[in-house]
From TrEMBL, chains A, B:
This is 3-hydroxyacyl-[acyl-carrier-protein] dehydratase, mitochondrial isoform X1. InterPro entries: HotDog_dom_sf, MaoC-like_dom, UPF0336/Enoyl-CoA_hydratase. It comes from Raphanus sativus. Keywords: Lyase. GO terms for biological process: fatty acid biosynthetic process. One of its GO terms (cellular component) is mitochondrion. The keyword Ubl conjugation does not apply. The keyword Transmembrane does not apply. GO terms for molecular function: (3R)-hydroxyacyl-[acyl-carrier-protein] dehydratase activity. It comes from the Eukaryota. Residues 53-145 form the MaoC-like domain.
Amino acid sequence: MVESGSILELHSQCGISETMLAKTFVPRHLLDSRCFSSVNSKILKVGDVLREARVFSSEDVKGYAEVSHDWNPLHFDQESARKAGFENRLVHGMLVSSMFPRIISAHFPGAVYVSQTLHFRSPVYIGDDILGIVQATTLRETKNKYIVKFSTKCIKNHSELVVLDGEATAILPNLEMLQPSHLE
Amino acid sequence: MVESGSILELHSQCGISETMLAKTFVPRHLLDSRCFSSVNSKILKVGDVLREARVFSSEDVKGYAEVSHDWNPLHFDQESARKAGFENRLVHGMLVSSMFPRIISAHFPGAVYVSQTLHFRSPVYIGDDILGIVQATTLRETKNKYIVKFSTKCIKNHSELVVLDGEATAILPNLEMLQPSHLE
């Protein structure tokens, strides 16, 4: 576990409401990262950890298949999943991976993804409680932007079991982090 | 360009109909990779290339944001995209990346993703014509399954411009490829 530095948590339950987003398409406060007060802002430093929990539902898996066109039977047919050695239907690995850019861009609107490595180490089943953990490991300023490397991993069901890990690099427009209270 | 070996192409236009999938949830022929005739089957070998073209629409980007919760303004607000140095609204990099497991699992239902590296080299804009290219580079049999490494890349608008590349590893249940005619 890499939990030094400050820890910021987002939960789907208490974060951005999907209904709200669907209505407004994208809220104004996501379009302007400077609209939060300095009292609540925090400057990212190496070691800081950002986290978000999520449970992927059957509807999430279907929604992801509709947009990705990835209808691998492992995600839809229990018998196919069992034949392949799994206990149940799997969540698409790339859907789980989407937690990393989501966590980064929720704190740094306008972040540009440069790279991501992904190792799918253990199955994620529909209904598993997944915690995405993103930690800044290196930070470099260039032309008023910031190139930040993050270690990225997901653990499941409140255990130490890493289901997915890797590394991401993103270009951040600034180092001021949006705080969870601003996402509610 | 890596186009040696046989080339199989899928096009969204002539591939699986989303409407059909939405109605049946997942077609029977995707649940049983043995239901195609040996006349039309082909055994994967090192060097074989699988390809699929796709144009990501504004609705695709919104659909992906709804399922991933990634509402980065670069994907929704032209002004934010321009401020960040882009010509227009970007398609989520991880949505473009979803082409790789989609291409692999469309040919090998039951494929299990092991790893993926991703380098986002150039922006993908809504409306760009993206060609996903997946080539088998190494192949190893183990316990009646096959561990296959693929080089993976996307080029855009019929140019040589690589917008995204990397490498994927997948475990395939067998080496018999579904052919496009079986996906129509």
